[in-house]
Specification:
The chain has 131 residues and is an all-alpha fold. It has five helices and no strands. The chain is flat, with a radius of gyration of 25 Å. The mean pLDDT is 81.
Length: 131
């Protein structure tokens, strides 16, 4: 009886080891994910600031479709728009680091990091400095 209770508690408290850690997953996180993150942030920046046109976005989508080695994964998907399709396919583990760098190089053509203007402090005549 005590053994059954201990086994029941162990099953609930101690998680089972999962077999989902493959070498590909670890290498993807180390090699591709930093490039993916940079591509994603720069693409979001370009879209929000209208630095990329629709034709350029479609060209990027075609490049991305050529990089995805398993197109049947996305065969029957309904996309809201081109950006939704691009961001979903960018997450694919079928893209190699070399191909991701090619996509990054394409986005860097349009990405212009505009620094925020430095605002100087204005003195207000009705405020006095207390010493």
């Amino acid at each position: 009886m005590v053994q059954k209770i201990i086994n029941l508690l162990l099953r609930k408290v101690v998680p089972k080891p999962t077999d989902s850690r493959y070498v590909e997953d670890i290498l993807y996180n180390q090699m591709v994910y930093p490039i993916y993150s940079e591509v994603q942030h720069k693409l979001i920046y370009c879209l929000k600031n209208k630095q990329i046109t629709r034709d350029q976005l479609i060209t990027f989508k075609n490049m991305l479709n050529a990089c995805v080695r398993n197109p049947y994964t996305y065969k029957d998907r309904d996309w809201k728009n081109d950006a939704h399709e691009i961001f979903t396919k960018l997450k694919s583990h079928y893209i190699k680091p070399k191909e991701m760098k090619k996509l990054l190089k394409y986005i860097n053509q349009f990405y212009a990091d505009i620094p925020e203007p430095i605002q100087e402090f204005k003195t207000v005549p009705y405020l006095k400095v207390i010493k």
